[in-house]
Amino acid sequence: MTITHYLILSLLLFSIGVAGVLLRRNTIIVLMSLELIFNSVNISLAAFSYFLQSLNGTVFVIFNITVAAAEVAIGLAIVVSVYRSRKTVNVEELDEMRY
Amino acid sequence: MNIWALLILPLASAVIITLLTRKNKDLSSYISIGAVVACFAIVAPYILKMFGDPHMHPEEQAFIWLDIPGLMVEIGTLIDPLSIVMLTVVTFVGSLIHIYSRGYMHGEEGFSRFFACLSLFIFAMIGIVISNNFIMTFIFWELVGLASYLLIGYYYQKPSAADAAKKAFIVNRVGDFGFVLGIIVIFYATGTVNFAEVARHIAAGEVSNGTLGLASLLIFCGAVGKSAQFPLHVWLPDAMEGPTPVSALIHAATMVAAGVYMLARTGFLFAAAPAGAMEVIAYTGGITALMAALLAFGQTDIKRIIAYSTLSSLGYMVMAVGVGGTNAGMFYLMTHAFFKALLFLGAGSVIHACHTNDIWEMGKLYPKLKITAVTFILGSLAMMGIFPFSGFWSKDEVLTSAFTSGHTLLFIMGVFTAFLTAVFMTKLLIVTFFGEKRYHGHPHESPSLMTIPLIILSIFAVIAGVVGIPGVEPSFGDFMPSFGEGHGEHHFNYFVAVTSTIAVFIGIFVGWLIYSKKAIDNKQLAANWSGLYAALVNRFYIDHFYDTVLVKGIYNQIARISNYIEVYIIINFIINGSAYLTRQTGKALRLTISGQLQHYALAMVGGVLVIMMMYVIL
Questions:
Q1: Looking at the complex, does the CB of residue A91 fall below 8 Å from at least one CB of chain B?
Q2: Does residue B389 sit in helix, strand or coil?
Q3: Each residue of B103-148: pLDDT tens digit?
Q4: Which residue is closest to A27 within chain B, CA to CA?
Q5: How far, CA to CA in Å, does B277 sit from each of A44, B182, B213, B304, B408?
Q6: 3-state per-residue secondary structure call for B317-335
Q7: Residue of A14, A27, A98 best to disrupt the B interface, most CBs of B under 10 A
Q8: Which of A95, A97, A99 has its CB closest to that of B590?
Q9: Chain A residues lying within 8 Å of B596, measured CB to CB
Q10: What is the predicted pLDDT for the residue at B486?
Q11: What distance in Å separates residue A92's CA from the closest CA in chain B?
């Protein structure tokens, strides 16, 4: 197991995440895809931390997870309130802020 | 008493009236009158001192106002006989006119504003008189211009008054431009602007003849503007749009004489200047005197007739300075201040009674306005220069200095002017106060607030010549420093006195023949000389010329080009153009805002990819 394996895994997860954000219509799926992107970054950070024998990366991972948890809480709250007022969570239909 | 109070009191009065007491008309006028009378009280001891010691030592006080390397400007006072004479005129005549104004301006809207402006004027005028350097003179010179502008435009709702105010200000600016250049030339040549210092440098022969000539002519430009000499005389007759006390104070007695005073003050410059420069000054004065006396015939407005006689008198003074008779000029200035202020105030009293300025709508006012008429006649006699009124002695001095300095042509012009003056003043008297009744309504004598200043002024108009009578000590000539080679003293010349007196009496006789006895029909006369008459009515077409050539021809063309640049280049192209460009750019960019979250995300990812590609390739 070299660092390359981890990075390839990270890259795959990242690409899946980006594809999910760009292509899926459901806001909850988009948020989940964002989590994938987060975690791909976390994997690469943890891998570097392990291979470089430095705790910096690990610290960052902890931070990221904490922040991501908070962000998901807010994101889901927004989705719920959007759903209550619009009766939809389809991102294509949420296009009020346009010219 | 501190000499600085002369400046502080009127300024304080102007400020207090403007800021605090504007609502209270009576209080405002009392403050203003109080300030100018207090100034006279400060000046009075100096007058006595001057009479006791004609050759008094000049008192100079100054503090430094501006001190930068190479240029030091003071605010200072210079009290010598010359400034004392002028201060007397300004504060004494000023006091009387302030008191008169309280009666004349009664019930006018803006009564307080009027007195605030008068106080501002007195402040500025005293500043010119006591100044000890060129820069300070120039500052106050502009301030009197401002006060004059405000007062000519007193009835600013009236377009003609607003135009006259602008005209006075702009025409003066032309002359002042020369004045500034003159100050620069003097500063460049001597490195100082203090009068005494400049005089010392010139006396030491440190300034070349050419520079002196240039400087004196440029300084003279200032006097041409302020003292309304040909060719910048056009503003003074129009300035009669202001209230009559203003005409008396500013446009007869003091401000317009400031030019002559300034020539006397800087006499050291003119005494040293080459003869050619002096000739220019003398002939400018002579031409103004003669031309204005002629133009007075074309007018029917009582104030304008007196205004042209003022122009003519100013021409006399400038001519006197030009031929080297600075004393004579200052003497004429003093007597002129008394009798011309009297004539204007008298005219104001007549206008107050008749509610018109046109002399052909007056006539036979003598029985109705006895005090005004008698004082007006005394003023006219002084103006014509009849023995032994003040005008006789002063006019005689002017003519004598022209005659004895060998300027025969100027002497003849002067005598002819005296003749013309006598004719039109006779005309004015007969048409206004005698002859048949042409007025409407019931004219009545003015209140004593107005007649008492008239009486006091008429006394001075009669006796002010005493100080100039040969043989009476101390004589006026003693007060004046004589500049140059003994031009200061003139002996009484019987030939001159007799010639001018004969000319004046012929003038009165001619005036009487035409306007009273009607031996010569004036309408017939006008018809026979229709060309000349039209020229007189149209002021020799000089105003017309300025209007057509300068205003329409040059000024309007410049205005048109500037307007084109402003409208098309600045507004349409630069301002509206940049606004249009911004708006169009905004419109185009707006299309990218689709409201689709995923479009933005795609743009972000795309952007990151592009940056990564660039990083890889480069």
A1: yes
A2: coil
A3: 888 888 888 888 999 999 999 999 999 988 888 999 999 999 999 9
A4: B597
A5: 98, 13, 6, 31, 18
A6: HHHHHHCCCHHHHHHHHHH
A7: A98
A8: A99
A9: 91-92, 95, 98
A10: 40
A11: 6
Option in A18, A23, A95 nearest B595 (CB):
A95
Which one-letter amino acid corresponds to residue B422?
A
> A92 contacts in B (CB within 8 Å)?
596, 598
Is A29 near chain B, with CB under 8 Å?
no
What is the CATH code of the structural domain delimited by A3-86? 1.10.287.3510
Residue of A nearest to B598 (CA): A22
Q: Is the pLDDT of residue B400 over 60?
A: yes
* B78 backbone dihedrals φ, ψ, rounded to 5°: -130, 110
Interface predicted TM-score of the whole assembly (ipTM), two decimals: 0.88
pLDDT of residue B354 exceeding 70: yes
The single-letter code of the amino acid at B173 is R
CA distances from A51 to A99, B191, B246, B391, B521 (A): 50, 85, 100, 117, 128
Sign of the four-CA dihedral B79, B80, B86, B88: positive
CA distance A46 to chain B (A): 23
Pairwise CA distance, residues A72 & A75, whole Å: 5
Chain A interface disruption, residue of B598, B599, B600, B612, most A CBs within 10 A? B598
Please indicate whether, in this complex, the C-beta atoms of A91 and B596 are within 8 angstroms of each other: yes
Q: What is the pLDDT of residues B508-567, one digit of tens each?
A: 888 888 777 776 666 777 777 777 777 777 777 777 777 777 777 777 888 899 999 999
| pLDDT greater than 90 at residue B580 | yes
Distance, CA of B323 to CA of B329 (rounded, Å): 10
- B205 CB-near residues (< 8 Å, 6+ apart): none
pLDDT in tens, B62-104: 888 888 887 888 888 888 888 888 888 899 999 999 998 888 8
Q: How far apart are CA B123 and CA B39, in angstroms?
A: 10
Instruction: State the sign of the Cα–Cα–Cα–Cα dihedral B307, B109, B6, B465.
Output: positive
Q: Quick one: which of B408, B418, B342 has its CA closest to B374?
A: B342
Best A41, A82, A95, A96 member to test B by mutation, with max B CBs in 10 Å, is A95
The CA distances from residue B511 to B421, B427, B498, B527, in Å, are 10, 6, 20, 18
SS3 sequence, chain A? Answer: CCHHHHHHHHHHHHHHHHHHHHHCCEHHHHHHHHHHHHHHHHHHHHHHHHHHCCCHHHHHHHHHHHHHHHHHHHHHHHHHHHHHHHCCCECCCCCCCCC
User: Coil, helix or strand for B552?
Assistant: helix
Distance between start and end Cα atoms, chain B: 89
Q: Which among A22, A96, A97 has CB closest to B601? A: A22
CB-CB under 8 Å, A21 with B593? no
CB contact under 8 A, A96 and B595: yes
